[in-house]
Amino acid sequence: MPRNRKRAIGCVALFSSLMVAMAGCGSQTETSTTEPGSGTAASNLTGTIKINGSSTVQPIANAVKEEFAKLYPDVTVSVDGKGTGNGFKMFQDKETDISDASRPIKPGEFEACKENGVEFIEMPVAYDGLTIVVHPKNDWVDTLTVDQLKQIFVGADAAKKWSDVDSSWPEETIEIFSPGTGSGTYDYFREVVIGKSEAALRNDMNLNEDDNVLVNGVAGNPYAIGFFGVAYYEESKDKLKAAKIVNPKDEQAYLPTPENIASGAYAPFSRPLFIYVSTASLPRAEVATFVSYFLDNAPTLCERVGYVRLPDEIMQRAMNNLDAENAGTHYIDADGNSRSGAVADIYQPENLTK
Amino acid sequence: MSSMPDAIVKQDAKYLADNARRRKQFSLWFYFLCVAIALISVVILVVLMISIWSQGQSRLSSDLLTRSHSELEIERSGMWPAILGSLFVCGTCALVALPLGVGTAVFLEEFQPTNKLLRWIHGFVQLNISNLAGVPSIVYGLLGLTVFVYMFNVFGQIRVNESAGMEIMGYKHFYQVLTLEPGHVVFVPQSDPTKRQTTFDEPFQAVDPDGNSIEISIWTPGTPKPSDPAIRRQTVRAGAIGGTITERSWYYFRLPFDKSFLSGGLTLALVILPIIIISSQESLRGVPSSLREASMGLGATTWQTVRDVCLPAALPGIMTGAILAMGRAIGEAAPILVVMGAAVAKSTGPKHLMDDAVTMPVLIFNWAGRQQDEFKELSAAAIIVLLVVLLLLNSTAIYIRHHVQKAQS
Known about the structure:
The structure holds 2 protein chains of 2 kinds.
Chain A: H1 2-24, E1 47-53, H2 58-71, E2 75-79, H3 84-92, E3 98-101, H4 107-115, E4 120-134, E5 143-144, H5 146-153, H6 162-165, E6 175-178, H7 184-194, E7 206-207, H8 211-219, E8 224-229, H9 230-235, E9 241-242, E10 244-246, E11 253-254, H10 258-263, E12 270-278, H11 285-304, H12 312-324, H13 343-346
Helix pairs in contact in A: 2-11, 3-4, 11-12
Chain B: H1 6-9, H2 13-56, H3 62-66, H4 80-110, H5 116-132, H6 137-149, E1 158-159, E2 163-164, E3 166-178, E4 185-189, E5 197-200, E6 204-207, E7 213-219, H7 229-232, E8 235-237, E9 240-255, H8 261-285, H9 289-297, H10 302-330, H11 334-340, H12 360-368, H13 373-408
Parallel strand pairs in B: 7-8
Antiparallel strand pairs in B: 1-2, 3-4, 3-9, 5-9, 6-7
Subcellular location (chain B): Cell membrane
InterPro entries (chain B): MetI-like, MetI-like_sf
Keywords (chain B): Membrane, Transmembrane, Transmembrane helix, Transport
């Protein structure tokens, strides 16, 4: 009997020591070797930076973190992606240093930040375009206006059939694929087609958080329509057709190409992506170094992960805000209402609301 | 005699033969139906395996096993930190859930109370455990978030720049100050931990990486700036701000646990606890009561009976349940996402008790949702690795079980 017990104890000990051994062996991975000839010795800067927020911005933050780690190997940057809204919740509870956002901060979130004494600097880092896609066999939709999109996407009396939008179009039921209501992409689209009201898009859409499902859904039905970020469209160009969107300002229809997004011609569906940095964290050497590195490298790195760079002028304004520590948002006016429009018009020093 | 019905006295041979043939045929059909049903699950599994294999095999490389997630060199992304993270989380989970689960099962099966009130409580616990086994794991995730990550905020909230919760051991706080040499910092030991930031206007003492004290001088803008790098490394600008950084030993311990691998492991332990309890109860129930009675008859106490008779006899069954439960734990993504977040770009495994970790299911979930084809292939390859790790862990457990069984017989 005692021998059995010893055996059993031995087995448990073996198992736990296996675990400890796992722990013991260096959990270091070679992320990458610094290029020879770069000549800079790695810095001894250390510390921890917590980032949470939009899963759309997560790849950009990851890419910046990756390059940053080559220069500052001792700094720990954790980049989570629980969604823009959740990110702001954690940000106002002082759980994070930086909040990633795929839309500007909302008045309610801004109020909560004020109440909790969280001040931040708002900085756009890249462009993302919303692509409206249809099936390649769809030969009746080439261009869409915002009004037509309203007819398709908004309200209980929204168009059920294509012919309800335009009588020359086929009398077939429209099937709609949309990102989930929790995503910044859905929020942004809703804001463009509905405006500032809190009304929701029509409730009989196929909602899915997984963009691949949306791609396959639209690719599988000639009478379907859907929307998602431009990076996804780039990867599935062969399966889908992007609709040209009529810019309300110059009445021209534009495709969501990187050039059109960067020039602002692809309006109103090109959106800026932001980072919000807590001013309380900025005095910390690691945060200050990381954020200025982020702004310096965002244009090149965001392109490498499928987004569109912002014009240098806007990046310069962001750097000025960081330098001067101009806290506040440009997207909410003094009365607490959201501003909407092109980032070049809104992200101006005179629009800053503390 | 004559009152017997005709059908019994004079049996119809043709009818009987037909009936027998029909019954045999029906039995044969049923047999084939059972085989077909059994094969369907195998076929589904094989199809899944083949599709995963064909998608992922091109990405099975040493990079996948040794490197970490990379956004800029997708084709060289790897999952080493995730493998380590999963092992840590599941190790924590096993160390907590196995003793608790088996202990609970022993109590419920072997120590059944006779008192009416206690019996009622016993029944109440039993009923709850049976129900808990059916609760979706995301609910456990939310529970873990409240209980382990925030601990109801009784130990204070962890806030950046303000408080690090209730730190208990394994930490040293320093102020980190930038020197005049770009990228070079010096560290000043912290005397008052409540002061998270401090400003330096007077020359002060700092420590170098070896712990030796070095004298740091102050440069006031407007006066000549030193140009020698060695001096610049020991000079800070007047008014420089030192922010708190923490040096953590591996045994660093703090309440609440925040988004650490410990929280993840403890939450998973909650998820699999009911499964372990129920399967352990079943195997204890399978121990013949004659064994118990014999042991009692020799004068053994209840505890001695449990320890030397029931548990050894039930051990193989208990281990089978544990293996199944751990298989579920290693692949569980929902509660981990809630408790530990969705960060994937971590380049190391956990370094101290309160460190966060990436786990394999979360990494697979993230990769599978990316638009780049490389990531989709990588997620298939990562699934293969996950299955292999699971098989390795299971075969170790099965080997141990076999060993224990042999030792008993």
